[in-house]
Amino acid sequence: MQPSSIKRLDELFAAEPDRLSRLSFEVAGLYFDWSKTHLNAALIAQFIERAERMGFAAARDALFAGAIVNQSEGRPATHVAERGSGAPDDVDLATARRQRMRALVDAIEAGAFGDLTGVLHIGIGGSVMGPALLVDALGRRSATLEVRFLSNIDGAAFDEAVALLDPATTLVVVASKTFTTLETLTNLEAARAWLRGGGVDDPDGRLIAVTAKPQAALDQGIDESRILQFAEGVGGRYSLWSSVSVTAALALGWDAFEALLEGAAEMDRHFRFAEAAANVPLIAAFADRLYAEQLGCQTRGVFAYDDRLRLLPPYLQQLEMESNGKSVTSDGKPVASPTAPVTWGGTGTDAQHAVFQLLHQGTVLVPVEFVAVAEADDAQDPDHHRLLLLNAFGQAAALMQGRQSEDAQRSYPGNRPSATVLLQRLDARTLGALLAFYEHRTFANAVLLGINPFDQFGVELGKEIAGRLAQGGDSGSLDPSTRALIERAGI
Ligand code: F6P
Questions:
Q1: How far is the C-alpha of 407 from the C-alpha of 460, rounded, in Å?
Q2: Pick from 102, 4, 79, 127: which is nearest to 271 by CA?
Q3: Least crowded by CB within 10 Å, which of 102, 283, 312, 491?
Q4: Which residues participate in catalysis according to the annotation?
């Protein structure tokens, strides 16, 4: 039920002639349209007051100053320094490490590892999702290397990842912030065996490690000259700005990697200096809070109307759900309101033929986000892209307008919110700005909630249980259901 204080979207448009201009913004080559959300001037004023009460400006300053914003782990969050926006010392360190990364990329391109035909990038979560998104989004038409990303511990995933790679001419990049992750270390061993089996005499000579824990990589037998370090303050899901993207830099070229950072820095400047009522990550966070807290929305759907951005929804799932899927505030008290909704989504137009029925006529309200690109980059008739975009815009209009019919089955209630991000073109710079927008929006949500977006203790318990059992630990202390599953699987 919509609270009576919140007007219908058609009423909002009718009552506010300047609605579109107040709720649409152009930043860093991206156009953001939040006018089809239920935000209005009064709600925005209330949220701005709440941001002030929650110390938003000071929290944002602390983030960019490299102060401790991850209280539970006692550290800063320095991903912004990777793109030159943080504290001078953090920026200097990030710059020095990026220069080292560049030297390695240059050496590889100059043949230090022989004539390479492929790269196998091993990592999981934040150590793979960013670079995989970058290469998939930007490297389709230019790739000279066969690049494969491997994350899952499932041997079938390994088989598939190496199927098109030649061990004799493949470089293996192992990315792991901690260098203790079970999946990554297991796949590292499998990669060594694969290289050896393919006739490579010195498999370790073909490995590059990317980590915040160089000693752990050394302990895994990787030579110091092939370890790229990044800062402990760079969280896994915020790490694509660091040397975690060495694979993307190899696949897309160094200039593209630099442009990615510049685009993100432009969004950083907007987030730092734009006034609240025109600050896009903050406005988006206000809408997120409105739907989660006042309209009971437990999910948010993100649909990329561009095949190059098909990995954006899963990337955002980690960013948003691992950051803000919390139940206690930074000082350990239960939160007063719902935190992160479930982020889900897919690509348009496919999703229209699968899940949009529920979005239009289901009983749950899902705020929808459309992400599209004005300029195409494909070899087909321009009509493909025109139809793609018209479908995105048509869906957003249909969600909002609805349609009354005598026949209840054919009625659309309308008044269903959506937001649209339209990039003029998809390139490294605009993609950097887009991803930085999502990071800052996640941070803004966390500040409004008083939670810490930079830890993720919730992922530990399941790992611990599996780890204990893998070490031969007794399953006797577990529940009967789990014991029966282990027995039935014969493991
Ligand atoms: O289990 C969750 C997580 O810790 C993520 O936060 C992280 O991105 C991923 O695992 C991989 O961790 P690492 O980079 O240390 O291998």
A1: 51
A2: 79
A3: 491
A4: 322, 353, 463
Show the ligand 1 pocket: residues with CB < 6 angstroms: 124-127, 176-178, 181, 184, 236-237, 322, 456, 459
Residue 471 Cα to ligand 1 midpoint, Å, equals: 21
Query: What is the residue whose two structure tokens read 């893998």?
Result: 470
* Residue closest by Cα to atom 9 of ligand 1: 125
User: How far apart are the C-alpha atoms of 282 and 274, rounded to whole Å?
Assistant: 10
Rounded to the nearest whole angstrom, what is the distance from the C-alpha of residue 156 to the centroid of ligand 1? 21
CATH 3.40.50.10490 fits 9-65+274-455, yes or no: yes
Gap from CA of 236 to ligand 1 centroid (Å): 6
338 contacts 293 by C-beta, under 8 angstroms:
yes
Average pLDDT value for residue range 25-36: 97
DSSP assignment of 72-88: GGTEE--HHHHTT-S-H
Mean pLDDT throughout 109-116? 94
pLDDT the model gives residue 450:
98
Banded model confidence at residue 272, pLDDT cuts 50, 70, 90: very high
Query: Residue 481: what are its φ and ψ, rounded to 5°?
Result: -60, -50
pLDDT for the residue numbered 476: 82
Count of residues in the chain: 491
Q: How confident is the model at residue 1 (pLDDT cuts 50, 70, 90)?
A: low
With the most atoms of ligand 1 within 8 angstroms of its CB, the residue from 72, 177, 243 to mutate is: 177
pLDDT value at 2 more than 90: no
Instruction: Kindly tell me if the per-residue pLDDT of 5 is higher than 90.
Output: no
On whether the 79-252 domain is CATH 3.20.20.140, my answer is no
Domain edges within the chain: 9-65+274-455, 79-252, 460-489
Q: What local confidence, expressed as pLDDT, does residue 156 receive?
A: 98
Confidence (pTM): 0.97
